[in-house]
Design brief:
By secondary structure, the protein is an alpha/beta fold. It contains four helices and four strands. The chain is globular.
């Protein structure tokens, strides 16, 4: 299983259109990995519905913070690899550090992931 980690809020000023564009890039990488035979996951698609259920009404509120990064931390513990997409993201950098600490593979390009040919 490959965790795709990339900017979600980073560089957006929390502008909804820019956040959505970042989220789409993460999902597009997941699709490319899936098409190459991998099981790809991202924390955003798992955390955001739970954050909403917990009462989140905006990015960065208490319910959002309760779920968002902790979901990524739990996922990285269960993944074989992390694909780190380009762009500033403290959360993604943390996922990479956690993956490396446990000896999981870290890729910085989709083309470097085994089996992915574009």
């Amino acid at each position: 299983m490959v965790l795709v980690a990339g900017p979600y809020r980073g560089g957006t000023g929390d502008d909804p259109a820019l956040v959505a564009a970042n989220h789409r890039r993460i999902q597009e990488a997941c699709l490319a990995l899936f098409r190459a035979g991998h099981l790809a996951v991202n924390g955003e698609d798992l955390a955001l519905p739970l954050a909403a259920l917990a009462g989140s009404t905006r990015i960065g509120d208490a319910a959002f913070d309760e779920v968002f990064h902790p979901m990524g931390r739990r996922l990285v513990d269960r993944c074989d690899a992390v694909l780190r997409l380009p762009g500033a993201s403290a959360g993604s950098d943390e996922m990479v550090a956690l993956a490396r600490a446990r000896g999981a593979a870290v890729y910085t390009s989709l083309d470097d992931v085994p089996g992915v040919a574009r």
